[in-house]
Amino acid sequence: MPAPIPPALVLVVNAGSSSLKASLVDGRGQRPWQQQRSLDPGAAGGVEALLEGWLLPEITPWLPRLERIAHRVVHGGERFTAPTALTPAVVEALEALVPLAPLHNAAALEAIRWFSAWGEAQAPGLRQWACFDTGFHATLPEAARTYAIPAGWRAAGLRRFGFHGLSHQHVAEQVAVLRPGARRLISCHLGAGCSLCAIRLDPSTGPRSVATTMGFTPLEGLVMASRSGSVDPGLLLHQLRQGLTPEAIDEALQCHSGLLGLSELSGDMRTLRQAAAQGHQGAQLALAVFRQRLLEGIGAMAACLQGVEVIALTGGIGEHDQSLVGELGAALGWLEPFTLLQVSADEEGLMARLCREAG
Fold first, then answer.
1. Is this model's pTM higher than 0.90 or not?
2. Domain 180-347 belongs in CATH node 1.10.10.10
3. What is the pLDDT of residues 24-36, one digit of tens each?
4. Dihedral angle computed from the Cα positions of residues 324, 288, 254 and 83, in that order, rounded to the nearest 10 degrees
5. Confidence of residue 121 (pLDDT cuts 50, 70, 90)
6. pLDDT for res 3
7. d(C-alpha 75, C-alpha 124), whole Å
8. Which label site among 88, 97, 296, 302 has the fewest CB atoms less than 10 Å from its CB?
9. Mind telling me the catalytic residues?
10. pLDDT (tens digit per residue) in 125-171
């Protein structure tokens, strides 16, 4: 009897704001290989150096089984709401979206370009696909996605998109299995980036995003590792009038705010927990502001759903910070009875499945 043919693999590349994750996933969801490396987009070589020096040597033994590459792209704009095969025209359209998610889309496009060049020489015909974090939020009702801004601005496409959609979709699918009777879910993606999503779980239509905390860009919403989350637009106007350039404000809000800016110590929750326990006032302030904004956001999501049966935490903080689980359980006792879950993130497995289903 001939030996069984090994299953084909999808290489899933997830270039985030602070890390580059990669996995090889077969059609059953099994992973013969997956790893992660820290990513500093400003470092010499950046994404390309990691791909050439780390990723390619690691996956070389599996290259004969590789059928496609799937990339996580954070911002798909109005046009890209489903897994999409990457053509030169699509890549050009994605280039125009980089200013809307500079920490993420730029890294993803670096990876896409590198694999395109590598594929032309080493693997002609190997297809690349993109999955979009904004796609899950295409179901946002008009009232939830619309800003109260001038009509001309709205006509130009300035609206709430929402992000972390792949993570929120995965959480929703897991909760639907773990709590089949639940219909109202708040998904909390808490990591270097943080966002909430109010989700209706409907067995006939699948999960639907009805409200979320991130908006036109991944800057809006909760306090994050180095991103500010929501601030008064008037504060930004004030800083412009004080002489700061848009570029300086952008860097401050993206890279020097959030937990890092509040603590003046670190954007890593583990470091801040340790420092706060030792009396570091900046760390204590960072934890307090993070928790305050998180509770405000959960309350808003619960209002949109008119109640909640499950609150699920995922991401580096959500999955591992047991102190936060206890704090949330104590602070949210006023809500009607709900289940508080921690769900392991698996954007990569979801992406591999979605791309296979798309063609």
1. yes
2. no
3. 999 888 999 999 9
4. 30
5. confident
6. 56
7. 28
8. 88
9. 133
10. 899 999 999 999 999 999 999 999 999 999 999 999 999 999 999 99
The residue written with tokens 């890593």 in the block is 268
pLDDT at 247 over 80: yes
Domain layout of the chain by residue ranges: 9-132, 180-347
Query: Can you spell out the DSSP letters for 177-193?
Result: HHSTT--EEEEEEESSS
> Are the C-beta atoms of 4 and 60 separated by less than 8 Å?
no
| 3-state secondary structure at position 128 | strand
DSSP 72-95: EES--TTT--S-EE--HHHHHHHH
- Positive or negative, the CA dihedral 62, 66, 69, 70 is negative
Q: Which alpha helices (H) appear in the chain, and where do they start and end?
A: 46-50, 56-59, 88-95, 105-122, 142-145, 151-155, 165-178, 233-241, 246-255, 258-263, 269-277, 281-305, 315-320, 322-331, 347-358
The CATH T-level fold of domain 9-132 is Nucleotidyltransferase; domain 5 (3.30.420)
Rounded to an integer, what is the distance from CA 328 to the centroid of its chain?
22
Distance CA 356, CA 359 (A): 5
- According to DSSP, the residues that pair with 33 across neighbouring strands are 24
Q: What is the CA radius of gyration of the chain?
A: 21
Residue pair 226/256 in contact (Cβ under 8 Å)? The answer is yes
